[in-house]
Amino acid sequence: MARLSLAERLEILADAAKYDASCASSGTSKRNSRDGKGLGSTEGMGICHAYAPDGRCISLLKILLTNHCIFDCHYCVNRKSSNVRRARFTPREVVDLTLSFYRRNYIEGLFLSSGIVRSSSHTMEQLIEVARSLREDHAFRGYIHLKTIPEADPQLVERAGLWADRVSINVELPTDAGLARLAPDKDSGQIESAIGRIGDAIVEAKDARKRFRHAPRFAPAGQSTQMIVGADGASDSQIIGRANGLYDRFGLRRVYYSAFSPIPDASAVLPLRRPPLMREHRLYQSDWLVRFYGFSATEVQQATDAEGMLALDIDPKLAWALKHRESFPIDINLATREQLLRVPGLGTRAVAAILQARRHHRLRLEDLGRLTRSIARLRPFIVTADWRPASITDSVDLRARLAPPPRQMELFG
Amino acid sequence: MTARPGATSRQHCILVERPDDLEAWREQARALAAAGVVPEHVIWSLQSSGAADLFGGAAAPAACLPSPAAPLAVRANEAFLGLAESVIRHRDPARFALLYRLLWRLQGDRRLMEKPADSDVHCAMAMGRQVRRDIHKMRAFVRFRAVTEPDGGDRYIAWFEPEHHVVRANARFFLDRFASQRWSILTPDLCLHWDGESLVEAPGADPRDAPREDATEDLWQRYYASIFNPARLKVGMMVKEMPRRYWKNLPEAQLIPQLIAGAQAREAAMVAQGADPFPAAPPETLEEIAQGIAACRRCPIGCNGTRAVPGEGPARARLLIVGEQPGDSEECAGRPFVGPAGQLLDRHLRQAGLDRASIRLTNAVKHFRFEPRGKRRIHQTPTAGQIDLCRWWLEAERRLVKPDMVLALGASAGRALLGRAPRLADERGTAMRLADGAGLWLTVHPSYLLRLEGAARDREEARFQDDLARLRIMLEEPAATP
Ligand code: SF4
């Protein structure tokens, strides 16, 4: 086979990486290169340098070191038995690409992952070499996210955290049974213990830095993981429960959900149809309810239907409110922050603005119109100085009236 | 708020020298407020906007201020200054007046800035957000191109067009990030140059001053095209975050149209494999159909960039004539049956005593399927799958127009009405009935006649004329109308 050019390999290895949901580059320590010696900086918030037509942010050079793989996970386009074009980069090539993209302000940094070649530990060493070279040889101060390989030598996995801002290990599937069936080479116990070790190392490094200012940083942007939705039979309720367990036990920064997308050359074990994209969106919304809106995982689970699925036509907060009508209406002028956050249609920003504004006068609907995006959705759930719903929260057709009209696009989703 | 003591009723024309200079504005505003000048009496303008000439080289700002015997104490607070920092960089010329009004009102109401529902505060906050967004977008969308300088070193040069006056506000960001390389950011209003040691400001530049190309852009474009997942198109989301006004200076944005078109064709291919792509509720008006087909991409024809051609004629008609698909002229005109075949049809209709104005004319397929050959677009017959897909629109039109009689011209139209391939030779000239009770009459398409010559043409035209004449008789016979 003719040797592929750098550009061709970039196409193959970027294409293979696009099923990874995460592209975040936020939340790491602040750095700059004002001293003129290194390259790059990080602020609290990462920057999305471009958006693709799929609406996703492009902030990092997200590629695989190689898409050769000795494993055979059914949901993965790079599995051993899949018939895709294969390519690989040398660590040096990845370093050069990252730097030349970075210098032109295309990216915030690198998100590197890999198929498994030779052995897990060998592959992990190569990934680490890229990060080491960027940091040591080029004093690169941009963002690095390494996807680590849980089967590799634990010491290697931990070394990743010394160079990377964030490390992630994918739990892949929400249930152990799903993993056993679809990823026969992987082991959920091993995955969880690797996540656990990294979690511990992060906590230790934070502690050490409190005591010694020069203690090395360890994955300052924390650890994340990803779950594929819709490839096994797990319900939304199970997924929410699993994510919550991961947040609680390992202090993860983020759990990403990736709607299983029928991949070229799919294996026969998989469902043919992908789940509606809306399902992924609803799971992210439920994730937010827990992380920022003071809901417990159990409460979000209550918003699911008899099969444990979140409604697709309305968001989980509205679903929860419709099931708990007795908690409404809520008086905008008297309610606590926690109560306000439960009102469907009020986001954290709107709640902050309401709390601020009501210190000066009692809010009317018109005021609310300026502080929120739309009051039509809010009305049934709130009381203001000039508005009180006529026991509207009891009416049967409330859901129908609040659900947005079905959009054609989703039929394609 | 009423004028405070010491206020005068004179108009004050204040010139602001630099569009984003908060310090200078503060000096001027403080002097005005101290002199008790009410906001309504101040006209702010920017030096560079030519205002200076307009007022005959207006005097220095201070000179046109009254000097009150007892200047008033003017106080701002952090919330105000923090917001002003952003608002001053907004491109709206009204920003100076808005800020002054806020400063003025702040003297009487120390908590003004805490009232986001107040309309001035609300407006300033919105402007502040727009400016902060533009600052952020500049950090995101500046694209450097590398050039080699005489000493062999590289310089990274970008051309950027910010929406507001945010270049200075971003200098620090680019220094923090790229201090180890030489760079220049050129914009229409202001340029920044960093040589590794000092940062130099220069007046606005021209896009031609920036380098045209950089070999790395090809890699970046390939990356952009590969990282995107064509199975999930969310163009609205993309445009919201990456507004079109920035596209022309983003190398990757040049690919967007072709990526979208490719993804849609792929979607259409998925549809062809069986999923039902139409919404549950059919359109309720003919306008809805016209809009619906314009946006329709359910089969690959819709993705070829042509415009859809809706039916034409009365909204309720006794006779509906269905052709195959718009041709080259129809696509250009956006109207059915206006090309050579249409003219031939018109002639035969007249001859048969049928009045085109009272007939509704439409096509089985709403987009033009063609194959480009040089500059010409050669008609291509739509596939059975495409006809079946597009039938959804035809049925919607039939439901609304409620014709007594449908005339199908050619095999494609026959298929669209019957849901199966018609046997033209047998079924031509026999009255059939459709499920909704309307009569169906099948004949050839006039474009078939156009392809014939000599005696064959005469013979077929006569047959066609005969079909139309019998159709007219059926329309006149009450028995034909159930
Ligand atoms: S030809 Fe018909 S089905 Fe195909 S895109 Fe056009 S309107 Fe839609």
The most extensive interface, with participating residues per chain, is: A-B, 60 and 67 residues
What distance separates the N and C termini of chain B?
77 Å
**SS content category of chain B:** alpha/beta
Number of helix segments of chain B? 17
Extended strand count of chain B? 14
Radius of gyration of chain B using CA atoms only:
35 Å
* Beta content of chain B: 5-15%
Secondary-structure element string of chain A: HEEEHEHEHEHHEHEHHHEHHHEHH
Instruction: Give average pLDDT of chain B, whole number.
Output: 86
Radius of gyration of chain A: 24 Å
Count of strand segments of chain A: 10
Quick one: biggest sheet of chain A? 6 strands, parallel
Catalogue the unreliable spans of chain A. Answer: 406-413
Mean pLDDT of chain A: 83
Helical coverage of chain A, percent range: 25-40%
**Poorly predicted sequence stretches spanning 5 or more consecutive residues of chain B:** 1-8, 49-63
Q: What distance separates the N and C termini of chain A?
A: 37 Å
Oligomer: heterodimer
Family (chain B): Belongs to the uracil-DNA glycosylase (UDG) superfamily. Type 4 (UDGa) family.
Protein name (chain B): Type-4 uracil-DNA glycosylase
Keywords (chain B): 4Fe-4S, DNA damage, DNA repair, Hydrolase, Iron, Iron-sulfur, Metal-binding, Nucleotidyltransferase, Transferase
Organism (chain B): Sphingobium lignivorans
Molecular structure report:
The complex is a heterodimer of chains A (413) and B (482). Chain A is an alpha/beta fold. Chain A is 38% helix and 9% strand. Chain A is built from 15 helices and 10 strands. Chain A has helices at 6-15, 91-103, 120-137, 154-163, 176-182, 188-211, 236-250, 277-292, 297-302, 316-323, 337-341, 348-357, 365-371, 398-402, 409-412; strands at residues 50-51, 57-58, 60-64, 109-113, 143-147, 166-168, 223-229, 254-259, 330-331, 382-383. Chain A has a 6-stranded parallel sheet. Chain A is globular. Chain A starts with 5 loop residues before the first helix and ends with a helix. In chain B, strand 4 (154-159), helix 6 and strand 5 form a beta-alpha-beta unit. Chain B contains 17 helices and 14 strands. In chain B, helix 3 (78-87) crosses helix 5, helix 4 crosses helix 5 and helix 13 (384-401) crosses helix 14. In chain B, the strands form 4 sheets. Chain B has a 5-stranded mixed sheet, covered by helices on one side. In chain B, strands 9-8-12-14-13 form a 5-stranded mixed sheet, sandwiched between helices. In chain B, strands 1-2 form a two-stranded parallel sheet. Classes of the chains: A alpha/beta (413), B alpha/beta (482). Chains A and B meet through helix 1, strand 1, strand 2, helix 2 and helix 12 of A and helix 5, helix 6, helix 7, helix 8 and helix 9 of B. Bound molecules: iron/sulfur cluster. Chain A: This is DNA modification/repair radical SAM protein.
